[in-house]
Amino acid sequence: MHTHLSDEDLNFRTEVHNFLKENYTKKIADKIGDSVSYREGIIEWQKILYEKGWVAPSWPVEYGGTEWSDTQKFIFDNERAGLGIPGSNPFGLKMVGPVIYTFGSEDQKEFFLPRILSSEHWWCQGYSEPGAGSDLSALKTKADRDGDEYVVNGAKIWTTNAQLADWIFCLVRTNNDTEKQQQGITFLLIDMKSPGINVNPIITIDGRHSLNEVEFKDVRVPVTNCIGEEDKGWTYAKALLAHERTAIAGVADSKRELGLVKEYASRELDGGDALLLDANFQRRVAEIEVELMALEYTELRVLASVAAGGSPGAESSILKIKGTEVQQSIQTLMMDVAGMYGSALGDNSDTDALGHDFGIGSRVKYMYGRAATIYGGANEVQKNIIAKAILGL
After folding, report:
1. Which class for 49: exposed (0-12), middle (13-18), buried (19 or more C-beta within 10 A)?
2. How many helical (H) and strand (E) elements, i.e. helices and strands, does the chain have?
3. Which of 93, 114, 121, 315 shows the greatest Cβ crowding within 10 Å of its Cβ?
4. Residue 86 DSSP symbol
5. DSSP structure class, residue 197
6. 15 has catalytic annotation
7. Would you call 302 helix, strand, or coil by DSSP?
8. Annotated catalytic residue: which of 244, 257, 296, 315?
9. Partners of 203 in the beta sheet?
10. Quick one: which H or E segment has residue 99?
11. Which residue, among 385, 282, 365, 280, has the nearest Cα to 324 in the 3D structure?
12. Is the pTM of this model over 0.90?
């Protein structure tokens, strides 16, 4: 990964910037910002990227990818984040899609991949359970073989956007007679319209409904929806989690958020001077910038490795740990810049009243962001992975 952009890369950056700025309209942004029209807005935007051929930059070309270099992927993500454009829905494009084109059958690739790219299918993830979160191998959702079908019973929890999803990819237990918990687990693709599926909403501290409990009662799933081999799902699950944790790092978006913090702090007064001039505030900003720069170069090394034919390894755990810690630090700093305004104006705070964007949006990010170090595999678990895989402990 070169730190200086070539003329070709600079031209590519201009092309990306112009395309995103022209096509990501206020109408689409308003839809995505509204919980009622969120899915509609994301799909509308992803279809624009799909028509351009840019919806899945990291996929192999034969399945609809772009053939971009790791530098170009880096450029695209930074231009997207810099313009305040959200990332794509990750569950299809960044999680189950790579699992299907890597481990799936030809029939599965032919059916699912085009529908993921075109946003015809909206996916959610069925991993965590009431008694199996960080210790995912303790899952108990069971799938019994009945001829050409599995009969699934159990429950998944913290399932993001299950209320909007067409399909769910699930880890289920197909064999209890094993030496290790990680054995006897199968990776299934399940149609959310299947009889016996019930979605129960979970309202989070920020007042949003994005999480759910998904119950399965005698849900019949064709055996052809099994990815790879039966009882070998843990192997495929680990590959998916590596991609997920790499994506969670969110470096480009954190750079934009930190830039906003500095912009607001330059206008916020503290004793007559801009808050940005305060030595202690500058120290806190500098510490985050150093962490973010180190995180960015780690991400670039991982991207370069993947581009060369590898896959994210334990490095993804490093990205997940530092990425989510940096996100929380930035969110805390943003709330500190807002200072007394948050409590003074309560839920009526808005951009016009404050003179800057310290309205409900910032507080929602802060409150939901407290979970960042937990979802995708708690950071404590990621440290264990690093200790074992990298340090050999």
Report:
1. buried
2. 15, 9
3. 93
4. P
5. E
6. no
7. helix
8. 244
9. 209
10. helix 97-103
11. 365
12. no
